[in-house]
Write a structure and sequence with these properties.
This protein is an alpha/beta fold. It has a single domain, classed as Alpha/Beta hydrolase fold, catalytic domain (Rossmann fold, 3-Layer(aba) Sandwich). It is built from 6 helices and 8 strands. The chain is 31% helix and 24% strand. An 8-stranded mixed sheet has the order 1-2-4-3-5-6-7-8, sandwiched between helices. β5, α4 and β6 form a beta-alpha-beta unit.
Amino acid sequence: MAAQQPEWKELGNTEFLQGGASPGETRAALILLHGRGGSAEDIFGLAPMLGMDDLLFLAPEAPGNTWYPFSFLSPIAQNEPSLSAALETVARMVEVAAAAAGGASRVVLAGFSQGACLSLEYAARNPQSYGGVVALSGGLIGPPGTVWNQDGDFGGTPVFLGCSDVDPHIPVTRVRESTTHLRAMGANVTERIYPGMGHTINDDELDAFRQILASVGA
């Protein structure tokens, strides 16, 4: 199966990079969401590191390279209307990915930092059986004390949350709250907290990422 070179596509007002396996021939589809100040090209750099040519990769780009203006711990209203627009972008990508791969159960949502938060928030608001959710340095969105809606069921969706215990942007307490919430909604969550790592991605996280991807549509 020949992999497509990444190329820019447009759907509505969403621009995204698409590459890897051809739609309709792919084993699964992976949506990659970049962090604040990053780009679709940046996060697409994970694709060759994952080493799976039989996947379709989709990476949307945020307007101005930022999905929402303030911290994910700010009051929700402060990040509107950007947050709702970002969630709508993810919804469009999920539609594209599901159509290409044969359903949401073959779609994996993943992101780093702000993109990780957005991946988790979209999934939590739209629970179903996904191929997986991978949050690299992220947590559910909302200020301290947020009580998230628990309606819906993930049906055992594998979810990975990896983060440092000293991340300057993502409090470890929020990672753990996110784990608790997603487990209560039927997700099969793996949480790994890395001592002293900082705000980055490590090899152990990439290994966990590969394990989820390998299990989808196998």
